[in-house]
Design a protein that fits this description.
alpha+beta; Nucleotide Exchange Factor Grpe, Chain A, domain 2; three-stranded antiparallel beta sheet
């Protein structure tokens, strides 16, 4: 009875020592790690090397395609930038040309007025000038000038008899009268001018006023 009891504890201790051996714990850890990896749906099994190679090939192809597209986009960007720079340069050149030669057409019209004046002066030097011919020449020159101004969008403000408008008229004097209603333009001392509905110069006028 005494020997049997003494041997049994010895057997239990040996079993516990075997379970606590390092080799046994290592095998248990490997078993747990393999189970975790195999349960992960996103990763292939370490033993399936062909599947790993296939995934690497797929990723390499996707990377190559992405790099190729990036190269194409970069070339397009460079071309667009070059086109934009060329467009900006052309616009600057056009603005510079417009600034320099904006008066070109108007200058051509004014040359006709100068020609008319020179013809009148040459005729006056001939000694055959009368008041009538002088007036006729001046009216012709004025007509040529007004036609040139009209082509450039310049119109005359001649408000005689109209209601005084301080936006387009400048009153230089006020005159009392019973013949015209108050606040009317009696006399246009100097005509005004408009450029495409923008005031260039107001007309200088005398305005009517009721007698005191």
């Amino acid at each position: 009875m005494t020997e049997h009891k003494s041997k049994k504890p010895h057997s239990d201790n040996s079993k516990k020592e075997d379970e606590n051996m390092p080799s046994q714990r290592f095998e248990d850890d490997n078993l747990i790690g393999s189970r975790i990896i195999s349960e992960d749906a996103g990763l292939p099994s370490p033993d399936n090397k062909s599947e790993l190679h296939d995934q690497i090939d797929t990723l390499n192809k996707a990377l190559a395609e992405t790099q190729d597209k990036m190269g194409q986009y970069w070339e397009r960007l460079l071309r667009k930038e070059a086109e934009l720079q060329n467009l900006q340069k052309r616009m600057q050149d056009e603005v510079e040309k417009t600034r320099k030669f904006a008066i070109d057409r108007f200058a051509s019209e004014i040359l006709q007025v100068l020609d008319s004046l020179e013809q009148g002066l040459n005729f006056a030097q001939s000694g055959n000038v009368t008041t009538e011919t002088l007036m006729e020449g001046m009216k012709l020159t004025q007509s040529v000038l007004m036609n040139s101004l009209d082509k450039q969008g310049i119109s005359v403000i001649n408000p005689e008899g109209e209601v005084f408008n301080p936006t387009f008229h400048e009153a230089i004097s006020v005159q009392e009268t019973n013949h015209v209603p108050p606040n009317k333009v009696l006399v246009v001392v100097q005509k005004g001018y408009m450029l495409n509905n923008r005031l260039l110069r107001p007309a200088r006028v005398v305005v009517s006023k009721a007698p005191a």
